[in-house]
Amino acid sequence: MKIIVLVKEVPDTWGERRLDLETGLADRAASEAVLDEIGERALEVALAYADAHADTEVVVMSMAPESAAATIRKGLAMGAGSAVHIADPGLAAADLGLTARTLAAAIRRIGFDLVITGNVSTDGSGGVLPAMLAELLEVPNATALSSVEIADDSVAGTRNIEGGTMRVRASLPAVISITEALPDARFPNFKGIMAAKKKPFETLSAADLGIEPEDLSVPWSIMTAVAEKPPRAAGVKITDEGDGGTRIAEFLIENRLV
Amino acid sequence: MTDHPADPILVVLEATPGGELATSAAGLLAAASQIGTPAALVVAAPGQAPSLAEQAAALGAERVLAVESASTQSELTIPHVDAVAAAAAAVAPQAVLVSNSIDGRDIAGRFAARTGAPIAVDAVGLSRDEEGIVAHHSVYGGAYTVDSAATFGPLVVTVRQGAVDARAEARALALESLEVAASGAPSAAIESVEAVTEASSRPELRGAKRVVSGGRGLGSAEQFALVEELADALGAAVGASRAAVDAGYIPASHQVGQTGVSVSPQLYVALGISGAIQHRAGMQTAKNIVAVNKDPEAPIFDVADFGVVGDVFTVVPQLISALAERKR
């Protein structure tokens, strides 16, 4: 079984995140970069399966600037067998269509039985990429799974849909995405960090994948404006001195909220 | 009514397991009517289309294309994508609007990839400029606003649920049955669907005017009852942080935040919630925010209009009795 897990470097949500108001791109210098937690959970699903099935190959893959290599390496330290990093300055402003075409080309090149992704990234909150990849790879999608059972020839799970829960099953190869309901990822240990240095780490350019990043004959989604919202004005903050509840009630009454 | 409006917008509507239009339908049709003439697509189990179409017309669809197919009950995503492809061919839309729900994202993603159409995700509104349709986004937990548009061709847009408050005027029902050629794309099989009906007299979280949410600070599932008591005193819906859901205090359907429900109520009360950005992303567009937390450094205080540094177990009971006093 060959499992490709898509991971992403994102600005740490515990710090301030900034957009460059000139380019509209993420200001990577403004905040610490981390491996997106939902991608770590996706990797945990693959590693847990590999723990129980020795002939499993787990590949972490990411499309990100060259500077993200160290973050992607964390996936190797956690236990993935190899990494594929698509790094190309020409892809810096890629929209979702170009991102999907590029990732699909890399996934096809590596070969796969199962692709696992997070349901939505912390930064983009798009959540459409798993389905786009499934369409381009001509395989089924089973998204937003809150439980995952991988078998030799299929993958099944539960998804919480609006107004109910649904059980789905897809034959392999397939693309799945998982939610935060799945377990936290393991921490890389010292042994894993040392082993990661010796694991295969492939860096690919768009040209390696036969992708022309500046192909303007296909339609693009482009950013036409970006602006910072004025920060929310700081409100009143008091320390409870025995009348905290009463003060809240007064605030609610004054503002006609009750 | 003309046969071919100059500015058709295709609106993909979802149906619930119970055969009703999803609550996102009204906002989607309103958004479409602000930028063009809404043509709705309903894809339903056999027998369900006429009632869904009537609901769609009442919410502003100028015409309704209907597909009835048993495969929607047994195959995930693909029957819907095939239907959207057929509808887009029939309508020649300037934009395709889909709800940014779990299924909506899949339908929009596969349709965009199949047709090579550009896609804009999680829009909070739409407008038109001299060059065409513009999608508006609120990103990084609402800290920035970003506009996006297609270089050419129709833009596929997923619209954030509950983001569009406007409502379109009802139209007379113009129902057309749509023939769909199956693409044969491989799909996941739907093995079962269980409708969840939560018996509760409280308002539904999504769309509630008032929300009281609890976090890890409540300490246990038993003590989480305090959140429910205050919610009942205020006639509010009950929400929770992911930490409270992870700790098992309350089911995941109550989770407010980036991966849970986004809310935009008149009043949001956060009890024992630290306010990680993922949570703030789901609630900071609330008109008024009240927070109670022991930790004076909790980030929730950065967005609170009225914050109390204190113990929820002394502050909240006092608040509840003050509210009861007032009602007397």
From TrEMBL, chain A:
Residues 23-213 form the Electron transfer flavoprotein alpha/beta-subunit N-terminal domain. This is Electron transfer flavoprotein subunit beta. Pfam families: ETF (PF01012). It comes from the Bacteria. SUPFAM superfamilies: Adenine nucleotide alpha hydrolases-like. The electron transfer flavoprotein serves as a specific electron acceptor for other dehydrogenases. It transfers the electrons to the main respiratory chain via ETF-ubiquinone oxidoreductase (ETF dehydrogenase). Heterodimer of an alpha and a beta subunit. SMART domains: ETF (SM00893). Its cofactor is FAD. Gene3D superfamilies: HUPs. Coiled coil: none annotated. Belongs to the ETF beta-subunit/FixA family.
UniProtKB/TrEMBL annotation, chain B:
It comes from the Bacteria. Residues 9-193 form the Electron transfer flavoprotein alpha/beta-subunit N-terminal domain. Keywords: Electron transport, FAD, Flavoprotein, Transport. Its cofactor is FAD. InterPro entries: DHS-like_NAD/FAD-binding_dom, ETF_a/b_N, ETF_a/FixB, ETF_asu_C, ETF_asu_C_CS, Rossmann-like_a/b/a_fold. SMART domains: ETF. PANTHER family: ELECTRON TRANSFER FLAVOPROTEIN ALPHA, ELECTRON TRANSFER FLAVOPROTEIN SUBUNIT ALPHA, MITOCHONDRIAL. The electron transfer flavoprotein serves as a specific electron acceptor for other dehydrogenases. It transfers the electrons to the main respiratory chain via ETF-ubiquinone oxidoreductase (ETF dehydrogenase). Heterodimer of an alpha and a beta subunit. Belongs to the ETF alpha-subunit/FixB family. This is Electron transfer flavoprotein subunit alpha/FixB family protein. It comes from Agromyces aurantiacus.
